[in-house]
Design a protein that fits this description.
This protein is α/β, with parallel strands linked by helices. The protein has helices at about 5-15, 15-20, 30-40, 55-70, 100-115, 120-135, 170-175, 180-185, 205-215, 225, 265-280, 290-295, 300, 325-340, 355-360, 380-390, 400-410, 425-430, and strands spanning about 50, 75-80, 90, 95, 140-145, 160-165, 195, 220, 225-235, 240-245, 250-260, 310, 315-320, 345, 365-370, 395, 415-420. The chain has 18 helices and 17 strands.
């Protein structure tokens, strides 16, 4: 099989979560362990950093990978889902996995895949671990897919684990309270391994983490208790922040530049800086210049897309992959702070999300353009229009995001502001991305 035939086989043969949702979910590690055993347990060939959480784990993974890359390390990065290209999931120093490796990996193991009937995610995890081993990376940054304890990535024994935050998402799998969700996420905490929690949220969540860390004899660090980070504004299109160490009130970075400009990145940054501090204490050679130069060029270094990304000016168009109430709340606050002229919203969702509580976050005075992602889980745009009307949100229906965005731009004055989002898969469908 060539590369395209291999992808066709993977998508047709294996259950894919982003297409069919719950039917593709296979909790447990046994199949992943078996797949990795068949390829020599490559996950044991290099140190790794494991990053989970509800929101921000992708951005945090990219930021840490960028810093390590700037420090001179050969860095593997595994994330999911992809936006445009399957190969986005597996990168080394920002370069996508080789087509031939993917085709060869699947061809050599097709009989075992047919025998084990793994999920799409389980196969891609084993593929990533094998690719990083073959390429002899110095370190791999591994993003959790969903949850933690039963996620396929959780067969690694990392140098460091990180959990960004906890909020309501995937409740049908992870639990219906924040404590239950935190317990699933806490499953990536390993014995005698430092664990970073990017932000201290509340006692219900923090107690779960503290108890799990104590039982695992793991040092626990809350990033938001170590650093105070304030927004200074924007300079040359980059988010300018001031970073202080809370214990001493020493200003570590008076003007740190971030090319990831979403306000929510300040919370992620607390965890990232804490993780880097721990890595340095463990002997990793990371200089201050590596940190500052990496954080102002994450997109260039790792290829991250879709996180509060500005697509154009006059009218201004922003997109963001926020896809649950907590994440969308952050982006709506930022949108409100920068919006000028008429606010316009190009939105679509998948049907198994908490759509009601997300619709409540949009302003009724906005102009809406309802669409649906090219995804089997997509909520029909006409159904979205009906649901939105119950919250005073009015607009027309479009067959896809590009048609909707084109109409929004045509109807805009140069001072208007347009937001595109609601689902990762709506953003993924953008031609402009």
């Amino acid at each position: 099989m060539n590369y395209q035939e291999t992808l066709d086989y993977l998508y047709s043969r294996l259950p894919v979560f982003h297409n069919i949702g719950a039917r593709a979910f296979k909790p447990g590690l046994q199949t992943t362990l078996e797949l990795c055993k068949l390829v020599g347990n490559p996950q044991n060939d290099y140190p790794a950093i494991h990053i989970g959480g509800t929101n921000g784990k992708g951005s945090s993974s990219h930021m840490i990978a960028a810093i390590l890359q700037k420090a001179g390390y050969k860095v593997g990065l595994y994330t999911s889902p992809h936006l445009k290209d399957f190969r986005e999931r597996i990168r080394i120093n920002g370069v996508y996995v080789d087509d031939n490796f993917i085709a060869g990996f699947i061809a050599d193991r097709k009989s075992n895949i047919d025998r084990l009937s793994p999920s799409f995610f389980e196969v891609t995890v084993a593929m990533a671990f094998s690719y990083f081993s073959t390429a002899k990376v110095d370190v791999a940054v591994i993003e959790v897919g969903m949850g933690g304890k039963l996620d396929s990535t959780n067969i690694i024994n990392p140098e460091l684990s990180m959990i960004t935050n906890i909020s309501y998402d995937h409740m049908q799998f992870l639990g219906d309270t924040l404590g239950k969700i935190a317990a699933e996420k806490a499953g990536i905490i390993k014995a005698n391994t430092p664990i970073v929690i990017s932000e201290y949220q509340n006692e219900e969540i923090s107690t779960v983490f503290m108890q799990t860390a104590a039982e695992s004899n793991s040092s626990l660090y809350f990033g938001s208790q170590l650093y105070d980070i304030a927004k200074n504004g924007f300079i040359n299109g980059k988010l300018n922040v001031r970073v202080c160490e809370k214990s001493t009130m020493e200003v570590l970075y008076p003007n740190l530049q971030l090319d990831l400009t979403g306000n929510y990145q300040l919370k992620n940054l607390c965890g990232v800086l804490t993780a880097v501090k721990i890595l340095k204490s463990k002997g990793w050679n990371i200089k201050e210049l590596d940190i500052t130069s990496a954080l102002e060029s994450v997109v260039e270094l790792t290829g991250l897309k879709g996180r509060w990304q500005k697509l154009q000016d006059s009218p201004s168009v922003y997109c963001d992959t926020a896809h649950n109430p907590a994440g969308l709340s952050e982006t709506m606050q930022q949108f409100a702070s920068i919006a000028s002229g008429q606010s316009r919203f190009v939105i679509g969702f998948v049907g198994d999300k908490d759509i009601t509580n997300m619709l409540k976050l949009f302003p009724s005075e906005g102009k809406f353009y309802f669409c649906q992602p090219s995804n089997l889980r997509a909520l029909k745009a006409s159904d979205l229009q009906h649901m939105a009307s119950q919250y005073g949100l009015q607009g027309k229906v479009y067959s896809n995001v590009n048609e909707a965005l084109k109409e929004a731009i045509q109807e805009s004055d140069i001072n208007d502001t347009i937001y595109v989002g609601g689902s990762t898969f709506v953003v993924a469908d953008l031609d402009q991305l």
